[in-house]
Amino acid sequence: MTHISNYILKLTKSLGVLMAVLIIFTSCHKEVSPTHQVGTTYTVNYAQVFEDFWNTMNKTYVFWSIDKTDWNKVHTDFAPAFAKLDYEVGYYTSDQISLKAARLFKQIVDGLVDSHYTLSLITGYGIDPALDRKWENPAFIGNMFMQNGAITALYPDQVNYYNVTVDSLYLTNKVIGYDTLNSFYTISGIVKNTNILYFSFSSFSLLSQYQNGTNPKVKAAIDNFFTQLTNPKVTSLIIDVRGNGGGSIADLNFLLGRLVSEPLKIGYTRSKSGTGRLDYTPWADAIVKPWYAFPSGFSKPIAVLADGLSVSMSELTTMTIKALPNTIFVGDTTWGANGPLTQNTDFNAGSFNFGYIGSNIQSGYNYYYGSVYTSSCMFKYKDNKIYEGQGFPPDYVVKVTPDQIFLPNDVVDDPQLNKAISLLPK
Question: Considering the entire predicted model, what is its pTM?
Fold first, then answer.
């Protein structure tokens, strides 16, 4: 590593410790492309790190038109606080200074409306404002998908407790596929004593799994679902994205394109047109296109199951299904991270690094004090409402706690799935 100032090195106990932190940091986060990357100012102290962060957010954060954070006041209040850290470097240990800096960053970003937003610091601190807000909600903590100790003890190998442990018991003619290497599963089948088709999966990597998955059972489960979509005996469909944290936008057409017979407008997107805080592109139509292998789509009733841990693509999927006729949404309000993400090489907004502190000559890798993961576009639904930071509400609210699922005498029950089944033709 070269060209790292003594000021930044004082943030750690030694060069060896810094390198260890860098290795941990880079193993968990991909470096953001430097193209259109305004946050690359060479920094030698905390005051400059803050200025680079503030300026980059000012230029590239896409939600300033709806965010309630007073960004000018942030500069007024926090620039002196970071400058004070530089003075205190000689009086506190590097760990104490790093903690002080992390706490300042947390105060700055705590109220941001972008629910994708996470901030990672090279000192090992990670800040997730939306998740912090969720933890303050008892209903969220009680969600079935949280790592509840009692559930984990019963089912230590299951990532998603509804869909595999519980809901597979509801199904016949079912196919379950696991890709343990990528922590992915999918399940499809017919609800017992009905002709209702059921499909669920743990993340939106369906297309990549279908084409390149390591377990053929995964592809078999997806193919089973696709085949049953054209089965004339099937009366209705349930798509379950509860606990699904999102993923690739390519899945929007791969999955939902099979349900539509013509292009379906689900809303609008816009990004930044320039570096001004309120420089925006015009709203552009967000459209789901029919999948070429399913030109007739699926015209029968559909229920989508989603909850507070349905994030990003899970929310766009829920909204897309609700844009179709004869559909219902059962469960709980979704997470509230609707803004699409893509490489910031494509837009003037999106994820970025800040506080450039040096590079490795041999590898060419650049090191930064911090990295921000944030949406590159704003999404507005077809009803002209923006649900970022709020979540998309269900037609039928059914809240669930673990004691409603795991009943005495090894009986399991799923109130949300039960409600969907009751509302669909059998």
Answer: 0.86
